[in-house]
Amino acid sequence: MSVSVRIPTILRTYTGGAAEVAGEGGTLREVLSKLDADYPGIGARILDESGKIRRFVNVYVGEEDVRFSDGLDTSTPDGAQISVIPAVAGG
Amino acid sequence: MALSTDFGPATALSCRECGTRYEIGPNFACIECFGPLEVAYEFGDVTRADIESGPTNIWRYRSLLPVPVDVSTKPNMQPGWTKLVKADNLAGELGMRALYVKDDSGNPTHSFKDRVVAIAVEAARNFGFHTLSCSSTGNLAGAVGAAAARAGLDSCVFVPANLEEAKIVVASVYGGRLVGIDGTYDEVNRFCSELIGDSLGEKWGFVNVNLRPYYAEGSKTLAYEIAEQLGWRIPDQIVIPVASGSQLTKIDKGFKELIRLGLVEPKEYRIFAAQAEGCSPVSTAYKAGHDVVQPVKPDTIAKSLAIGNPADGPYVLDIARRTGGAVEDVTDPEIVAAIRLLARTEGVFAETAGGVVLGVTRKLLENGKLDPDAETVILNTGEGLKTLDAVSAEARPAAVIRPSLDAFRTAFAN
Q: Which residues are recorded as modified (N6-(pyridoxal phosphate)lysine) (chain B) (predicted)?
C-alpha cells in the first residue's frame, strides 16, 4: 500500500526538510520500517529501544490516534495519511 | 539566535526525559526522544525579603522565572497573588482540621491561565513573534486574547466549537481571531501542531506548543504563592486538577525549588490529582498501575479539563506515586454538588474544574487517602460564571412574588 507520512519539524533533518514523504506498507509497523530504510535513523526517533511508540509522540493514521486502534499493527490502507506529532500541553 | 534575548535566570532548555540540553529557543520537543523540554536555570541568591518587596503579582517571583528583570514595567496582565482563602466552614463540613482554597478565579481573565500566558508573552517578545496563538479548552483562549491585546500583539486562537457560551465570548471579545474547530480539544491540538510546521504559522508563538517550556513555568507561581501565603511553608497535602497535567507537574517543581533555595523548610508533601470521570485517562492509568496513559474521548461537563490525551499524564502518575498522593475522579453530578458546596460554605463560585477538585477531595477523604488532620490546600482554577450551565438548573430564585410584604409572607409562611 502506498501512503503518505507527515513529518514533524524536529524530524525534518532526516528527510532533507520535507514535511511529507511517500511511504509503503500494510501496517503502521511496516510503514515505519520502510521509512527508516529510506531515512536511516528516523525510526529510532519514533520508537524506543523496545520497539514501542515513544511515550511523548502521537501517531495518527488518517484522523485516528493509533492508540485507539491497534497501535503499530494498525492497518494502513492505500492512500492513507500518517502523521507523527509530538505531544502538546494543555488547555 | 540572532536576536538579543533576555530570559533572566534561565540558561538553557533541557529534556525532561533524557536530559539533552538545548540553547534557549522556541522549541518544545527533544530531537532525541520527543520528550518535553523544560527551562533550566542558574538561580542567584534569592531571599524572602527580595520577593516580599516585589509587586503583588507573579513578578515578585521574577528571579525564579524565565523573564527579564524589568518584566513588571512591560505591558502585560500582571496576574497572580490571588487569594488563599482559609476555608473553615468547608473544613467543618468535611471534618478537616486546616483547609485552604487557592482561588485563581481572581486573575484578570478569571482563570489560572493568565499566569502561564504572561510568561509566554515575554518569550514571544524575546523571539520576535508577531502573533500569539494556542489550542484551548476555553480559558486559555481568553487569557491569550487579553494578553495579546495588552502587549500589542495579534492573536489567533483555536478552540473546540462546542465550548460553553461564556468561554466563546471571553475568547473573542479582546479582538483577536477566534477559530472554532469542529472536533475535540485533542483534535484542535493536533491541528495546531501541524500548523506550526507550516508557513501559515510562521512567526507565531503558540503558547502551549512552541512556547510551552516557558508557558508551563507560569504554574510554578501557584506553588510559590501558596507557600508564601502560608507564611513560607509548604502544605502537607494539595489537590490539583489535571487536564494535560502540566500545572500539577510545575507546582511540584515549584515546591522543590523553594526547598532547594532554602526559602522554606524541607518537608514531605503529598500531591493529589483530580479528574472528571468522563475524562479520566490519568486516574484510570493510576488505578491500573500503569506508567503510560491510554487516551480517551472526553465526555464531561468539566470542559476545561477535557483533554483525552494528556501530554504530561506520565509525570502526574510519577509525582502522585513519589509523594504518596493519589489520582481520583468524580462524576458530573458530584462535580455540580461540589460547586454548590464550595459556594454555600465559602462564598467561592468555582467553575467545573473547581468542582472536580472539591469533589475529588471529598472522595479521597471518604476512602481514607487524604488525611483530614493534615494541612491541605485545594485549587480553584477558574470562575463559575464561565460555566453557568453546570448549575443553572438548580440555582434558581426561591420564589418570584409581587413587591408586597403580604406576598412575601405568603410565599414563606411556613
A: 113
